Description:
By secondary structure, this protein is of the alpha+beta class. It contains 12 helices and 11 strands.
Amino acid sequence: xxxxxxxxxxxxxxxxxxxxxxxxxxxxxxxxxxxxxxxxxxxxxxxxxxxxxxxxxxxxxxxxxxxxxxxxxxxxxxxxxxxxxxxxxxxxxxxxxxxxxxxxxxxxxxxxxxxxxxxxxxxxxxxxxxxxxxxxxxxxxxxxxxxxxxxxxxxxxxxxxxxxxxxxxxxxxxxxxxxxxxxxxxxxxxxxxxxxxxxxxxxxxxxxxxxxxxxxxxxxxxxxxxxxxxxxxxxxxxxxxxxxxxxxxxxxxxxxxxxxxxxxxxxxxxxxxxxxxxxxxxxxxxxxxxxxxxxxxxxxxxxxxxxxxxxxxx
Length: 314
């Protein structure tokens, strides 16, 4: 394992994909323990310049890739500027994991499919030519656009950042949208960042005045559980009217998703219970359930409706 202390050294150690980046280690060490493909590692924990929040003159923010999820959740200035992001961060996992897990690690983590993480199986993600979950136990699988791999992407922060049209900065390359990290058409990878590339930071836009935001997850138990469906919503008000809306969901597809049809339905009028119900009514039509994921076709509109109703003005 290498342990560089600056960004240039980290980029050099990772170049070519000979080693895997490790920050908080909540994903890579779990994969190593289960003998799933992981390592050798380049430890990013001591790399200066990757951690912390930098505020720009225009009010926008740059969040370093090794900033912990707990630091994001607790940052009062981030909470005022980007409430959907901090609400999502505060709801993740457990306090212990939030204190260790990093922003970059959350975006680039691997899926939690038990076939992928079990060395007794081969799948599309580890060099196999089939997805055992298709014919096996896929109860937590995708429900929107199911393809060759049916493991949903596990990054909650990615959904929140999609709602902000955030970008990621990669060492030696120009910034790219968060959405460009993922490709639902590629069943072999959970993200498409080039092997050996170093994600440096997340770039957030100038905050929007008049924003209200919320995060909601549907889980099988109340604590320390991966979401079955999760939803992030941002609404910018102009008086009583919705000037713009952004809604993103996770747990339902190979990548986190924006819901433009919901956003468009809400924009221009008041946010009411009736408007929300009408906006989410078509979401089941997006779904093509697997034999054991039909329940997600019900949870998806219900979770989105729940998160949006939290933003209705009193």
